[in-house]
Amino acid sequence: MFQNLAAIDAETLKTMALGLSAGSIVIAIILLKVISSVVGKAVSTVILLAIALGGYSQREQITSCLDEVRSQTSMTVPTEITCVFFGQEISVKVPMPSM
Hints:
This protein has 2 helices and 3 strands; from the N terminus they run E-H-H-E-E. It has 99 residues and is α+β, with helices and mostly antiparallel strands. The chain has one domain. It has a 3-stranded mixed β-sheet with strand order 1-3-2. Helix 1 packs antiparallel against helix 2. The radius of gyration is 17 Å and the shape is elongated.
């Protein structure tokens, strides 16, 4: 899915994961109002909360990947690293540390 894109900024990637989490929670709340059966509400809520948790965990995984790279090297120029995002290896631009 993300393999066709050029290197993505790390902050953009974290924002995408956070947006996925927030979007699925909003959809879950809307579906709770729309669906009339209790079983339908329970199933849709569980599925959408699992998607939200997955998005948030991917955000944490990208953050830890970037922190690991930053701790191992002292970069003077922006570089690219490969991280895993939803099972896909993608190139992520690592910005220079602010001084």
